[in-house]
## 1
Amino acid sequence: ETGVTQSPTHLIKTRGQQVTLRCSSQSGHNTVSWYQQALGQGPQFIFQYYREEENGRGNFPPRFSGLQFPNYSSELNVNALELDDSALYLCASSSGTAGYTFGSGTRLTVV
Amino acid sequence: LAKTTQPISMDSYEGQEVNITCSHNNIATNDYITWYQQFPSQGPRFIIQGYKTKVTNEVASLFIPADRKSSTLSLPRVSLSDTAVYYCLVGGLTGGGNKLTFGTGTQLKVEL
């Protein structure tokens, strides 16, 4: 079985721009969560999708939005990028009966 | 959500047993304890999960006392490749509808 894959692995954007990050969940997993990890910190929960519906959200502004598709893959969109958005963005998937599997993340740098 | 407290860093040598203790005084009755390992620029990797007493798998053991207010992750005979950040999480059974709340973790450094 394949794990969680994220794309791109690295990305550089300019302040004010918009970015879309992508995640393919592990086979058989219907739940996808997104996390933001700043340097030296633990991952912080952004939101979670279950069967294409958002079913949980952390303390992030509305310019962080997401989608989950019928094949359970997911996107994270961030509008009006700020310098503080520079971080490692992690996607994690779960089947609902076992632990989460994380991808290797997308390193976003905002300049 | 129950808050966890764990040491910021620990040092060890190859071949030694490492025990990382996590405090979670406000753990709820239906909360599980889960440990993740993270290497630089990679996502966290599930290590072990338990509810009470002792759980053992091929990579680690998890000791949970009767009051469940703390837990200890035990790594037998560590090697250089065990150098990583270890996170203790407390919450509902992992799965749909449950977000994971990470602290700052414990940076384990293993030397020769």
Note: Chain A is about 0% helix and 50% strand.
## 2
Amino acid sequence: DAGVIQSPRHEVTEMGQEVTLRCKPISGHNSLFWYRQTMMRGLELLIYFNNNVPIDDSGMPEDRFSAKMPNASFSTLKIQPSEPRDSAVYFCASSRDLSSYEQYFGPGTRLTVT
Amino acid sequence: DAKTTQPNSMESNEEEPVHLPCNHSTISGTDYIHWYRQLPSQGPEYVIHGLTSNVNNRMASLAIAEDRKSSTLILHRATLRDAAVYYCILREANAGGTSYGKLTFGQGTILTVHP
């Protein structure tokens, strides 16, 4: 299995631009999680889905952030407009379901907003 | 969410055992204890988990105190590849709970392994 796939691996954009991060979970996994990691705040859970339905988005920092999961094999995290403080590594993770003890993390997308 | 407390950093020598402590005095009866680690420039990876009894797997052992207010991750023979940030996390196992399925990461313990 290829594991969780994230794209792009690196993104550099200017303040005010729209940024879209993509994630393909492991086939057969029904739960998907988006995290953000910064030096100051550590690893934070932004939002998670179960069977393509958002379960908890309380970690989404602002209305500028939105996430979708149109089908079981694809999810996006969008930031519009982007700001320098959004610079971070964004991880996507998946698990078989919410009762699973193991989440599998992707390699992350390093976002730099100038 | 129930919180965990870990030392900021620990050091070990290669091929020696490492004991990584974690305090979780506010743990509830439905919380599992999970350990993840994050190698440099990678996403976190699952290490081990347990509820009440000690657990062993190919990566590590987990020793859980009888009152469940603390636990220790044991790496039996540290290698250079074990240098990472180790996270101790409480995960709610109650399907009706508001935190069900979530992992809340703290700051973790930075483990340095010396050759």
Note: The mean pLDDT of chain B is 93.
